[in-house]
Amino acid sequence: MFLDVRDLTITLKTGEEIAKDISFSIDGGEMLSIVGSSGAGKTTVCKAVMGLLSSNYSISGEVLYRGENLLHCSKKRLQAIYGKEICYIMQNPMTAFNPSLRIGRQLEKTCYLHNPQISRQELQLLVSNTLQQLGLDDLKRILKSYPDALSGGMLQRIMIAAALINQPTILVADEATTAIDACNRIELMQLLRQLCSGGMAILFVTHDLRAASMADRILIMNDGQLVEAGTTEQIFNEPKEEYTKYLLSACTLERR
């Protein structure tokens, strides 16, 4: 099992519980989606998995990566895992890039951080191949561009390229489709699906059940708790909980 989260509870120092007894697992070649409205706690769970929560939070439970509890790992060990084996895609691609550095330089730095022995020629080839894998062919222009010169959809793909460049085993995508239009959203989900077919595990967090429809399994989260879990077919065709039915009805209304 690539990732196994057991009884994860996240509490603010004030005593407020943000997430309670969250358990799920995901293996290679699988896409798991956590779905819930804003404030459900899904992004906080994401950040706990990625080790990104501040000291204002306390965490109990287990976050097992290939059997190793990340909550008990040393800082040095976590630095070797995050960004290399487990990578994170943020909601807004504009906040993921340094506006004062060209895209090519940023991708090279991302790769070099975890592969310091790589040669310049190998580095440039890896960057180019990764961008082309994501359907980005105008390489010369992209690599020389600053982030604000590129579209949101293109930046989203480049952000995925930055995550993929070190060939991770797990990709955590937090509201990765929110900042892009419907056409780019469909293309992005198809791309993530292709990555799964190559053996990667993807944890896809979203408020939009439509975006989650390409996942293998869906977890429904509300008010800090998992309220329903099942295959995508089960969630869409045989929902059990009223909150799940509410999310499905919201999708139906938006399509009209």
Description:
This protein is of the alpha/beta class and 256 residues long. It has one domain: P-loop containing nucleotide triphosphate hydrolases (Rossmann fold, 3-Layer(aba) Sandwich), CATH 3.40.50.300. The protein has nine helices and ten strands. It has helices spanning 42-50, 75-81, 103-114, 120-133, 139-144, 152-164, 182-197, 232-237, 242-255, and strands spanning 3-12, 17-26, 31-35, 57-65, 68-69, 86-89, 170-174, 201-206, 217-222, 225-231. The protein has a six-stranded mixed beta sheet with strand order 6-7-8-3-9-10, sandwiched between helices. The chain has a four-stranded antiparallel beta sheet with strand order 2-1-4-5, with helices on one face. A hairpin with a 2-residue loop joins strand 4 (57-65) and strand 5 (68-69). The longest helix is centred in the C-terminal third of the chain and has 16 residues, at 182-197. It is found in: Cell membrane. Pfam families: ABC_tran. This is ABC transporter ATP-binding protein.
